[in-house]
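Milestone M4 deliverable, item 7.
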Amino acid sequence: MPQLPDPSGIRNRPASVALGELAIAAGVVGESLTITSGFAANTLCQIWKYYTQMLGAGNVIHVRSKRDLKDFAQRIASVRAVFVYAPRFYQDVAWQIHLAVAGAMSPRPPVFCGFQHDDPDLDPGFTLPLSNDERETTAVHNWVAGQGEHRFVEIEYPSSVEHDARLESILQPSSFDRIGLDFREQRIVEALIEGAALLRSAANQDRNDLVATLGDYEFVRRLLCSPVVRPNRELCEPLAAEMMSRANVYLSVKLGSDRRNPFRVPDDDGYRRSSNSALKRDAITRRELADLGNINSRMVATLIEYLQRADDGYARYLRMSCTGDPIAERGWRHLTPREVASSLKSWSSKQVRTHFDRLHQRGLVTAEREQMNGPLNYRLPEELENVGSPYSKLPALQSLTQNHTAA
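Output delivered:
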């Protein structure tokens, strides 16, 4: 019998961890999902290590080379999870899973990747992308530190999966057209609901005929509407938008009219005065943007110290991308720059390359002036700033119940 992480307490686990457990359970009932992540390697390592310990090292496969691909091809039905380390191997893994000839309820493993797909249209499967949310990262590490003994449960393969009649209005394709989900997003919702039903059945030691309930749906809906879930579209870069927002605050100081600002540099080539956005020199370098993402850097501390003295400093601080609620205006000038910096989101040099440089090289990120004598401001196409979860329009539980009663 296959084993799964003990579902007890799953509702208290970080959303990214719980979604992975639901994907693993969905694989048992024949629905293979891919979960991609923008988390830093140390965070991702903690999550993957937990899945490996719960499933058993012999029930997972790590794809790092072509040899691993050959091994996986012979173990598709028996593997409970696949961890892919490099983008060049993902397509082979996904195609092997979805081309495998098997019955409707045959197990198919989920795939976990530490990278985002360059082109979702080339993906033969169903991918759920997770973003590098600062709060979620903290939640994962706090959860890992507070874990007790690892436990798992053994389950039987279900013979069938049924759905509560009130879920029909959600799981029918026509319903997803109405609320703005595409076919892939629909399949992701359905697979996760079935995974939730399997975990609930295992926790309650129910018989092996599964019935997905409204409670399973509501649990999945809340997870999919969490900030960690990002749209399954290439043109969506919330982290790049946050980078540019902080970069624009920095440029408003560096290229502003105040000659006493701490970042001012000689303007021998007239860069500040030029309205030509096609100048070869970038408004901000990769090194500067990486330093702005390091909330412990001297650059961030210097910038905050300058803003604390400026008349409009607090308004500009609010545009620097906070991790949660910003510091109240009444007391922010009395805090040290380091204390203020701790409220900001952070990013790494690697994330600058993958979330900013890629867009900049494709011409999707531009720097222009709002005024002739004003500082340069980065702009991002509107569709790239769409940071909301595509599942936010899923109807709440109360709405489903009321609609079914009225019918």
